[in-house]
Known about the structure:
Blueprint: H1 17-38, H2 42-47, H3 51-75, H4 85-107, H5 113-123, H6 129-140
Helix pairs in contact: 3-4
Amino acid sequence: MAASAEEVNEDYPTEIHDYLSAFETSIGAVEEMLKTMMSVSRNELLQKLDPLEQAKVDLVSAYTLNSMFWVYLATQGVNPKEHPVKQELERIREHMNRVKEITDKKKASKLDKGAASRFVKNALWEPKPKIASKVAKKGQK
């Protein structure tokens, strides 16, 4: 007799059924994304991207693979926190932060020097010509 998808397997505690179902769904999503990425050659994919976007793709790929290895280690009873994969993930995360800083700098507004000088010039007080000429005439008397 075939078990339905909703039926709980008795090989594991019922309390973790929802977690395992969510994990299975996530694995399916990762598999679909990997199929999509692998359907196009890496060179073909990178040719369509600027260098910053290429760096993002490489970093996300490296982070994903190392994260999957982290999970694999955990399933094998190895503590990933004591494995070199932890340092690798931290290193990749640092590079991701650098790319984010570069992206944020590119998005930051650029200073329009012409507009800034006009703004400052118009904001400064200048004496009116009539008052200046009256003061000059008083000084001559």
